[in-house]
Amino acid sequence: MSNRVEACEQYNAALKQGKKYYAACVSKGQFPYPKVLDELLEKTSSTDTVNVGLVDIPTERIIGTWTEGRKAAFAGNFMPLLEMDTEFGNKWISLCEAHLGEQGITDPITCFEYMGYFYVKEGHKRVSVLKSYDAPSISGLVTRVMPAPSDTAEYKLYMEFLKFYKVSKLYLVTFSQPGSYARLQAALGFAPDQEWTEDARRSFSGDYRRFAAVFDRLNIEKLPLTPGDALLEYLQVHPYAEMRSQTEEEIRQGLTALWPDLRLTVRDDPISVSAEPEEKEKSLLGRILGGPKLHAAFIYDFDPKTSAWASAHEQGQKYLEEKLGAQISVSAYLCGDSPDETMEQAVKDGANVIFATTPTLIDACRRLAGRHKNLAVFNCSLSMPYTGVRSYYCRVYEGKFIAGAIAGAMAEDGRIGYIANYPIMGVTAAVNAFALGARLTNPRAKISLKWSCVPGNPVQEFMEEGVSVISNRDDDGAKPFLAWQLGIYQVKPGGALVPLASTRWNWGQYYQKTVQSLLTGGIDALRSGSHAVNDWWGLSTGVVDVDLDDQLPVGVRQLARILKNGIIKEEINPFLCPIRDQQGKEISDGEKLFTPEELMGMDWLCDNVEGAIPGFEELLPQSQNLVRLLGLYRDSIPPKTEETVL
C-alpha cells in the first residue's frame, strides 16, 4: 500500500472521528469545535506573555486554536470536519504522507500556552494528523500567556506547576490537588529546587507514560483523577525505584489493588468512624463449624523491652491471649528495618489477622493488604483513608475531660500545666476537653500548654514557674519504662509530687473485642469496600479509663465517677457547651455537636489555654515522622525527599 493510499484511508478514519465527536457535542448542547484562546482571554485581564521556547508538547494538552478563524475545519478533538475532496482535505493528506515518510513531520508548530493547555497559532493540520495517530507529543514553539492573579485553587495550582516546570521542563504530568508537584519532586529524590537532567526527563517520561496507559485502561468508571494523581498514590505504596522496574502487568496488579483507595480520594466522606465494637451475628455455617480459625500476628516496630509504646501493646497482646487463647493462636514479630519481609513471614506462618502497632507501619500494611485479599490488617493510627487497612486508636479526650475537672478542683489558684505529646490527630481535642473540664470545676482555671516533642523540660519548667497541678503523659500500660509521674499530680512545697488521677489506655480491651468480632463474623466482617474504617473507641468500650488515686478527696472522686458514667451513657458530652477559641471567636453556642472528623482534626485551642500548637520546623527530629503521618497540618508539611533514583 502506497503512502498516499494509506493517508487517504487515515483521513477517512479521522473524518469519521471528527463527525462523531461533533454530533455528540451538539446532542449534549456542548461547544463542538476547538476552544478559542482569544475568547477565553476576553474574560480576563491577562496580557503578559513569556517566551518559553521549543517544547515537547503532550498532544492531549492541545485543546484549542488562537483565533476563531481556523476552528470550523476541526471538531473539538482536532479531527477534520471537511470532506476529502476539499483543499483542506488534500493538504491534510499530503501532511499525512510526509508523516508516513522516512523523515516524518519535523517542523514545530507555533502555539500559546494558557493555564497548562495549548492553543495553536500555526500547524493545526500537523496537530490533527499526529493526533489521529495517537502521537504522545509534538514539538512546538510556545509563548506562555500569564493568567491574572487570583485566589482560585486553579490559579494556585498553576503557580505550583510553573515552579515545577522551571526545574523539570515538563508539561507531561498534571495534578488536581495543591502540593502535588512538590510531592512528586520529593518522591523522585530531588531537592525542591533541583533541576532535572535530560536523562532524568527522558527516563521519567517513559515511566510516566507507561503508568498513565495502565491507569487509563483501568479507569473505566472515569474517576475524576489525572494519571499524575494516581501516580502519587501509587508511589506511597510502591516507591519509584520499585515502580520503574515493574512490568505493565505488575503495575496493573498493584494499581488494581490500590483502586478502592483511589475511589476514596474523590469522596467527600472517605472515612467511616466506628465508635464502639460492632455486634456480629454468627452465621449458620459458623455455628456448625465453630467459626473461623484465627491466627493473630502482632507486629512491633520497637522492642517491647525498651519501648513504652510497644510494651503497652504487648500487654494488650497478653490480655488477648489470656481471654481468647483457647480459641485463637497468637504470635509476635519485631520488624526492625524490614516490615514488609516480617509481615510476609507472619502470613507464611499462618497469620490471617495482622495488628501493626505503630502508625509508621501504615505503608507496609497497605502493601500487605494489596497482596493478600483474605487477610484482616489493622494499624494503630487515626484518620487513615485506606480501605484495605483498618485503623484503631483511643478517644482519649473523654478521659481528659474528667482529668481536667479533677485538676480544676485541685488547683486552688487555677494554674494548671498540661504537657501534650505531638500535634497529631485527636491530641488537640484532648487538650481542649481537659481545659473545658477544668473550667467546669474552676471558672478561673488557666491551662499552660507545653509540648514534649519540642526542646525543653516541661515538668521542670512548670515547677520553676510555680504551677501547682501538672498533667503529664497518660498511663499506657508501660509503667516499668516511666521516668516521670503519670497522669495529673499536685506539686507540693519542696517539689514533692502527689498523684491525683491518670487517663489509662487499655489496648487489651480493643484486641479482645475486635478478635471476638472476627470470630463471630469472619475475616471479612470488619472490611469495607466503599469506606475506610477507623475504630475510635472511648470510655464505654473500656479501651479508655481514668484511674483515681486513693489520696484524691472523696467529693472529687464522686464527681469523677459521675462524669465518667454520664459520658458512657451519653448523658454528658465534653464539648456540648459554649466555647470560644484563643482569639475570642465563638466555636459553639452550646448546642453544636462536633462530628468525629471535627474532633480528630481540631486545630484551635480554647480561650482558657495559654500556649500554641508547634509548627513542623519546631519539632524534635525524632517526632517529625509521626507528625508527617498523623499531624494536624500534615497536608501542608513539605514532603520528605526520598533517595535519588533518576
Descriptive account of the structure:
The structure is a single chain. The protein is an alpha/beta fold and 646 residues long. Helices cover 39% and strands 18% of the residues. Helix 14 (362-371) links the parallel strand 10 (353-356) and strand 11.
How much is the average pLDDT? 90
- The helix count comes to 21
Strand content: 15-25%
Number of strands: 22
SSE class: alpha/beta
> What is the gyration radius calculated from CA atoms?
31 Å
Largest pleated sheet: 7 strands, parallel
* Uncertain runs: 284-289, 477-484
Give me the side-by-side strand order of the main sheet.
Answer: 7-18-12-11-10-8-9
Oligomer: single chain
Q: Could you provide a short overview of the structure?
A:
With 646 residues, the protein is α/β, with parallel strands linked by helices.
SSE blueprint and pairings:
Blueprint: H1 3-27, E1 35-36, H2 37-41, E2 49-58, E3 62-65, H3 87-100, E4 109-114, E5 117-122, H4 124-132, E6 137-145, H5 153-168, H6 180-187, H7 198-218, H8 227-237, H9 240-243, H10 248-264, E7 271-274, H11 284-289, E8 294-300, H12 308-324, E9 328-334, H13 339-348, E10 353-356, H14 362-371, E11 376-380, E12 389-394, H15 396-410, E13 415-420, H16 427-441, E14 446-451, H17 458-464, E15 469-471, E16 488-491, E17 497-505, H18 507-521, E18 532-537, E19 544-548, H19 554-568, E20 578-580, E21 586-589, H20 596-600, E22 609-610, H21 621-630
Parallel strand pairs: 1-3, 3-5, 4-6, 7-18, 8-9, 8-10, 10-11, 11-12, 12-18, 13-14, 13-15, 14-22
Antiparallel strand pairs: 2-6, 4-5, 15-16, 16-17, 17-19, 20-21
Helix pairs in contact: 1-3, 3-4, 7-8, 7-10, 12-18, 13-14, 15-16, 15-19
